[in-house]
Design brief:
Oligomer: single chain
Number of helices: 0
Helix content: under 10%
Mean pLDDT: 76
Shape: globular
Number of strands: 6
Strand content: over 45%
Largest sheet: 6 strands, mixed
Structural class: mainly beta
Low-confidence stretches: 1-21
């Protein structure tokens, strides 16, 4: 892979407790890594405001699975799941689009 290529691995949507649907989400977390097999990356938090996505927090160091990433079953179209697929106990974090209804 090209060394400047960043793969978007997680698109976490914060959904309000009022039952908003995905298109009405106003917050988003994106984690990027340099490739599928690294265990670290960067996190960016966005908020939808004034008709565009605005970065609130950027380049926060994160750790993903010890063996990197693999496609998980998320809200994204399954046709994008090419390559390694997530299996329980494989040491990889799931990649894809996932809703977060609440955080702790």
């Amino acid at each position: 892979m090209h060394k400047f290529f960043y793969l978007v691995i997680f698109l976490f949507f914060f959904l309000s407790s009022k039952g908003q649907t995905l298109p009405k989400s106003e917050q988003l977390i994106v984690v990027t890594t340099t490739n599928w097999d690294v265990n670290n990356g960067k996190l960016t938090v966005y908020e939808w405001k004034n008709g565009k996505w605005n970065a609130l927090l950027t380049d926060i160091p994160v750790v993903v699975g010890k063996k990197g990433l693999a496609w998980g079953k998320g809200l994204h179209n399954g046709k994008f799941n090419t390559g390694v697929l997530k299996k329980e106990g494989d040491g990889r974090s799931p990649a894809g689009i996932f809703p977060l209804n609440q955080l702790f």
